[in-house]
Amino acid sequence: MNFDDYRGIWVYLEVKDGNIAPVSLELLGAGRQLADKRKTELAGVLIGSSVKQLASTAFTYGADVVYVYDNPIFVYYRTEPYMRALLDCCEKHKPEVLLYGATPTGKDLASAIATDLPTGLTADTTILDIEEDTGLLLASRPAFGGNIMATILCKKYRPQMATVRPKVMKALPPDPSRTGKIVEEHIELREEDMRTKVLEIVREAKKARIDEADIIVAGGKGMGSKEGFQLIHQLAEVLGGAVGASRDVVEAGWIDHHHQVGQTGVTVTPKIYFAIGISGAIQHVVGMQNSELIIAINKDPNAPIFQSCHYGIVGDAFEIVPLLIERFKEEIPKVKAAADVKEEIRHA
Amino acid sequence: MLHIVACIKQVPDTKIIKMNPKTNTMDRASAPAILNPYDAHAVEEAVRLKKKYGGTVSVLTMGPPPAVKAIKKCIELGADEGYMISDRAFAGADTLATSYALTKALEKIAKQRPIDLVICGKMTIDGDTGQVGPGIARRLHIPPLTGVKKVVEINKEKGYAIVHRKLEDGYEVVRSTLPCLFTVEKDINDISFAPLPNMIKAARYQPTIWTADDLEDVDRKQLGLKGSPTIVSKVWAPPKPEGGELLEGSTKEKVEQLLSLVLVKKELFQ
Ligand SMILES: Cc1cc2nc3c(=O)[nH]c(=O)nc-3n(C[C@H](O)[C@H](O)[C@H](O)COP(=O)(O)OP(=O)(O)OC[C@H]3O[C@@H](n4cnc5c(N)ncnc54)[C@H](O)[C@@H]3O)c2cc1C
Ligand SMILES: Cc1cc2nc3c(=O)[nH]c(=O)nc-3n(C[C@H](O)[C@H](O)[C@H](O)COP(=O)(O)OP(=O)(O)OC[C@H]3O[C@@H](n4cnc5c(N)ncnc54)[C@H](O)[C@@H]3O)c2cc1C
């Protein structure tokens, strides 16, 4: 294998609801840094049906080149046709690094590609760097329940591949003046040869997406019971925020799994994160540590959560939260009213 | 009659694992070894399908000798046969080398009794990659169906399976040719209690154990550490966060301070 033949940093551009998935945009931001360090191109690979126009979004977020496989056979994600397209692209253009979002689709596709190429694949990366001179990708990931971090290398094979957790990398601010090169690719695939068929897609009622909320009020085992946990719901409602929870709360059955924040739950990055009655175990903290403002309330002054917050209150949640609810109820309408006045002045 | 093989792994219970705070290494001895919880669901599903359609459930693991315990656990859950591949040559395998070794074992099992379906867990709780299942499917040249949360139908005569695959906001109904490979979600089933006869059978059960030499057409360069493109180069403790400022005063005063901290972000409340 001649490493000099392999050039460029690539991102697999996952398409979700007719747009490029947020994680892919985040990866373009991370990929841009790697590409600049290596003084090479950043490319995206776009596979789907009627997706060509999405290439411009990729340019806006940092890509120089987008390889497009546009064909009705790609209307739904299926391993087989997608894998064939991406393998084709890798064989033709030989990337040095190929990144995927660690989403169900990204992981499925990346695992198949790694086996066929073959090459190494680092799972669930949270930190990425590259050696400027050798091009060696340094991919770090949490291991053993988040207790340790491991840096994983792939020295002898190319491309170097990693799946990267959503929300841990930052997308660049979009620059609509950026453009790039679209390379249209074709591959012969026949529907009759495909061994899987999507018969139906069933969308379930959209659940409150905590990964999109600006304010999250999260509660832990310290709330004592399902009834006690209602205080968390009440505070969230007053603030117009979403409800988060620790895993122990989910396991106790006080709330559904999709509210769980952390390593085996959702990674969140709200503007304000309240951690109430949550001890601050590493597995919880990894899911919320990039929040803009973290406020912890816990009755134990030695709770580890106070190491991971910006402001903390040592005290009993059952005393503090009701007071907070009451005071926010009074104050938030005033903030709203002030904003309305400003708005009127502007329109006057 | 279906032949289903569930791939299973013995893992340290990461819930109980302790870290040595001085060296930042894991105290492996502190953690009891258990059957990977996701794999229990894989075996449970295989046994349920066997009850519905008839057939045999085999389990396969790659691991050190004590992993026999995990196989016995699967026999308790209702599996019929257990296979283990165990050899120093497999040590240090990453997911590429793991899926290679397991595939070679699956090919050998299939020679004795053709395989209709392979079921893996969604992931393990130690390696945690979720890459082994799709790797095996590619090597066996069968379709991988990841994230299966319900099996609707298996029709061996007509050669197809229909399942629900989990999506981020719902699920899709997929039909695949048989044989194929599923990786299953935790919510696919609830683990049943092991009936007494299974427990007795498990206690006495001795799985078939193969070394690398017992497998056929094995390229040794693809096994273990040698066959692993990924290298764990450094293991380190995640950086300790700095710690926040504790608010002082009476409860009322603390609440007022908090209020002002939050309400500065006016744009969130307009
Ligand atoms: C592999 C693995 C993955 C995991 N993934 C996750 C994950 O994704 N998310 C997650 O959250 N956890 C996860 N965990 C579990 C994690 O290790 C902790 O067990 C869990 O986060 C603890 O939940 P908790 O803080 O609610 O409960 P506890 O640890 O029981 O803490 C309760 C806290 O409440 C405080 N308290 C009690 N009463 C009051 C009161 N009246 N007022 C104020 N404070 C009070 C206590 O001082 C204590 O600090 C994982 C664990 C493992 C091993
Ligand atoms: C700190 C650390 C980080 C690592 N990171 C990576 C990485 O990023 N990329 C990488 O390629 N490897 C990595 N590895 C190696 C990886 O843990 C091993 O390859 C492991 O043998 C298989 O991966 P897994 O446990 O993640 O399995 P998963 O892919 O998560 O397991 C999925 C399913 O595959 C089946 N299965 C998995 N292993 C076996 C087995 N031994 N026997 C039978 N069935 C099995 C089970 O059904 C299981 O539910 C890492 C190892 C360490 C110590």
Automatic annotation (TrEMBL), chain A:
Gene3D superfamilies: HUPs, TPP-binding domain. Binds 1 FAD per dimer. Its cofactor is FAD. The keyword GTP-binding does not apply. Residues 9-198 form the Electron transfer flavoprotein alpha/beta-subunit N-terminal domain. Keywords: FAD, Flavoprotein. It holds the Pfam family ETF. InterPro entries: DHS-like_NAD/FAD-binding_dom, ETF_a/b_N, ETF_a/FixB, ETF_alpha_N, ETF_asu_C, Rossmann-like_a/b/a_fold. GO terms for molecular function: electron transfer activity; flavin adenine dinucleotide binding. It comes from the Bacteria. FAD binds at residues 246-247, 260-264, 277-284, 298. GO terms for biological process: fatty acid beta-oxidation using acyl-CoA dehydrogenase. CDD domains: ETF_alpha. Coiled coil: none annotated. Belongs to the ETF alpha-subunit/FixB family. This is Electron transfer flavodomain protein. It comes from Anoxybacteroides amylolyticum.
TrEMBL record, chain B:
It comes from the Bacteria. Pfam families: ETF (PF01012). SUPFAM superfamilies: Adenine nucleotide alpha hydrolases-like (SSF52402). One of its GO terms (molecular function) is electron transfer activity. CDD domains: ETF_beta (cd01714). InterPro entries: ETF_a/b_N, ETF_b, ETF_beta_N, Rossmann-like_a/b/a_fold. Residues 23-218 form the Electron transfer flavoprotein alpha/beta-subunit N-terminal domain. PANTHER family: ELECTRON TRANSFER FLAVOPROTEIN BETA-SUBUNIT, PROTEIN FIXA. This is Electron transfer flavoprotein small subunit. It comes from Anoxybacteroides amylolyticum.
